[in-house]
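User: I'm preparing a small set of examples for a lab meeting where we compare how different chains pack in three dimensions. I only have the primary sequence for this one, and I'd like the structure in token form so I can line it up with the others. Please keep the answer compact; I'll paste it straight into my notes.
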Amino acid sequence: RFCVVIPAIRFYEIDKYLKAADFGIKRLRFVIPKEGEKSHLVLIEADKFYSGKHESMPDITIHHADGSYGEELKEIFSVGLKRVKRFSNV
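Assistant: Understood. Below is the structure token output for the 90-residue chain.
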């Protein structure tokens, strides 16, 4: 398993290198710094010899338009990463 956080503008580059190394993307998630803006980071999980379809997970929004934290980040900050259901298998 290979997990990485990269700048979103380099997604196609890392995809090319992963394929060349016989890795396939399993899960993909974009990080949006503030509502209404484009993503600036992408979270990628890849496995060696994986050739199935990747799971596009919902975007993570860090801040709402008013500057407050997004709901998912509030949940992570309040209970911790391991207790959030969608991260329980990490």
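A couple of notes for your slides: The chain has two helices and five strands. The chain has a mean pLDDT of 87.

User: Perfect, thanks.
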